[in-house]
């Protein structure tokens, strides 16, 4: 059993992260920890295996105290850990040796070690990458390697900090299903930190962290059915529950309680739903005379000329209209991040062209810095672009190097920090790497916004963000479009894509599989088959209802449109 007793912990500078936390986790348990960014989730996770030592209180793992240095080796064999950023724990030069690394350290018999490595490669669909360097894999593939290595060690407890944030929806379901099976297969308890309410709803127990305290502890149905608790903690319910609450607020009619989409579809199919009209089309816009960004026959791969050569992009052609928000989608490892890094010249094409306002950005290589001022890129892992001693210095770095003077510089830094909800008065003097994972993402975005780019390329900007921060960025991206900026968004959050995207491009196997207006692509009946992705939840609900014989309107894409449909379908005639 893991026992946490009156646990307190503060970060350097006296920033309180945990306050008097008490909890018990039994062997074989399936627990989710949820909470807003900065609520203490990751700090609590690091306390469970002794990476952080208690400032006050105690953590006991099967009777061993994390405060005793001589017990830490045994504790870390009992409590495995998968970090939020897989780069923090990948150390080997090949995927198979990465999985074997921990097994070698505990002295496992070589024959059994080989069996476990092969099993992990198979379970996590990593066999094609057996001899690939982990650092050449996509973010989602790296995360699968990190999880596979942790599971291969057969810990008694496995702590996972946002393990699916970088995975495509199908991979998320596969990993969630595997985590659910760990108890039955190996007796492993899972403590799963997540911002995805649908994942938390699949566990048996949900812990809600708020401002360093354990605010609530209970089964998913009770936690996600408590609207006041969710508001207080800054959380949201799973799609099915949230839709029921929204329809009840609109119509006064309570829908049957449901945590999962299929449950909701079953309940709705039993109700008398009258036919409704499809959502109104967005106003038609004339085609622009030219693309803001364009890719022409672009190809790229890694380890050229070596046996480990890995082709990523193959003759890709793509146009991004000015003032649009293009969602760049695809399964993990499909080349999205590699393509994004071509947009502002971080990677030079091995063949093909990148055009900005019809000009090849590599026509004058000595002027590529000017391209990077116009095309801002927010990395998938924000730690890669945070390096100064304080947040305000980090955000000021770009404009200062452009020659912006003190009065204007301070104004630009203040505006960028306010835009991402990290005001200078509260966060300016804090070291960037002391921020929570979600705060780091917003800090990295602030550093790019301070440069005032024309084009903003965002690689998984909301991964690991709480609902409030995600909603804040959603409104911010809409504001940027209203100001005439062009955005490219890489995301696995299909509901976010449904809300924001004007256009969608889907990569797969190095090629462009689908491309067009967002509603046309995302609501197409064969979207999942062609893309290897899940459609947005509202689309999947309409498909589930249609499969149950319910007459549904075509084109329903967004949460608000699903609410409109149900409110109209449940209303009396006339």
Write the layout of secondary structure elements.
Elements: E1 2-11, E2 15-25, E3 30-35, H1 41-48, E4 56-61, E5 64-65, H2 72-78, E6 79-82, H3 95-105, H4 110-123, H5 139-152, E7 157-161, H6 169-186, E8 189-193, H7 197-200, E9 205-210, E10 213-218, H8 220-224, H9 227-233, H10 239-251, H11 261-269, E11 293-302, E12 310-320, E13 325-329, H12 336-343, E14 351-356, E15 359-360, H13 368-374, E16 375-378, H14 391-401, H15 406-419, H16 424-427, H17 437-449, E17 455-459, H18 467-482, E18 486-490, H19 494-500, E19 503-508, E20 511-517, H20 518-522, H21 527-531, H22 537-547, H23 559-570
Parallel strand pairs: 3-8, 3-9, 6-7, 7-8, 13-18, 13-19, 16-17, 17-18
Antiparallel strand pairs: 1-2, 1-4, 4-5, 9-10, 11-12, 11-14, 14-15, 19-20
Helix pairs in contact: 3-4, 3-5, 4-5, 10-23, 11-22, 14-15, 14-17, 15-17
The main sheet orders its strands as 6-7-8-3-9-10
Helix count from the secondary structure assignment:
23
Tell me what portion of residues adopts beta-strand conformation.
15-25%
Low-confidence stretches: none
The beta-strand count equals 20
What is the overall silhouette? globular
Structural class: alpha/beta
Helical residues, percent = 25-40%
Mean pLDDT: 90
User: Terminal Cα separation, in Å?
Assistant: 60 Å
For the biggest sheet, the summary is: 6 strands, mixed
What is the radius of gyration computed over CA atoms, rounded to a whole number of angstroms?
A: 24 Å
